[in-house]
Amino acid sequence: MKTKHIIYALLFLIVLSVQRCQCKKDDPIPAPVPQPIPCDTCLPAITTSGKNTFGCRVNGIVWLPLGGGFNPGQWVEYFDQHLIVHGYNDDKGQWINLDVYPIIDTGRYVFYTPILKVQWADYLNAKTNIDYYADTIYKGYINVLRFDSVKGLMSGTFEFDVYDKYHKHNNDTIHITDGRFDLHL
Question: Is the pLDDT of residue 83 over 80?
Fold first, then answer.
């Protein structure tokens, strides 16, 4: 009879052990959420909400501003109907500037047009001392998408060609294309 109790006790322990050892399905491991890859070769989106962006292509290669020191990298000035858009890359030592007058509203201003009294632009590489500019831009445009002096926002797109200022580089032409800015005044 004692053996019977021992067998029952052993069976009870075995059943209890099996119940405790039953594998409980683990919660599935969630798939990793794909993170956007930072893109040093992507232009910022064309926006009109004051995102403080600037970018373009220089001879087909993406050009993005990068501030340094007291220079923010991108900014816009507007005074006396003068619109001046600046981009600066501290690492590359490069500037892109566009100066147009008079700008009094949104719209597309095609270069060269006698309506604009000033149509000036340049691309300067301070590290190589190469300065390309056009004191009168003959090819390109600026499209002012947002002109909000109350909120202090200026947005637009641009494209233009600049030329070897001092004819040191075989009279090269630099093509600035796919330009966009969305800046605070």
Answer: yes
